[in-house]
Amino acid sequence: MSDFSMTGLAVLAADPVVWASLATLIAMEVVLGIDNLIFISIVTNRLPEERRDSARRIGIGLALILRLALLGTVAFIVTLTTPVITVWGQGFSWRDLILIAGGLFLVWKATKEIHHHVDPDHGPNVFAAGRRSFPSAR
Prior knowledge:
This protein is mainly alpha-helical. Helix content is 70%, strand content 7%. It folds into two domains: 79 residues, no CATH class; 49 residues. Helix 2 runs antiparallel to helix 3.
């Protein structure tokens, strides 16, 4: 390794924020791993006894591979900072567009859930696919 990269690694290793971030990521991975174990155990209990162990191994292996792929995708998305469009003088990168789309999805999902839990008269689902008009007044 070059002197520059060793110096950069030494600076990172001395930064308490980096260690706190690493500890947070490790804690999240442990929680997600336990969640995967519980879910896969519940689902595989429906299988015949002779197929449970192999199904559990396959499920945990696929969960690990998928988590690593998602982490790699997120690491790639974080690097997409070159502006691709400009709106009213403000440049937006692919990262910005993905974050905006994710935020809009969360707002839509939260609105849907709040509507479902707060509305005393559930009536027809206004968010159902295929619905073309607003519900009529009663």
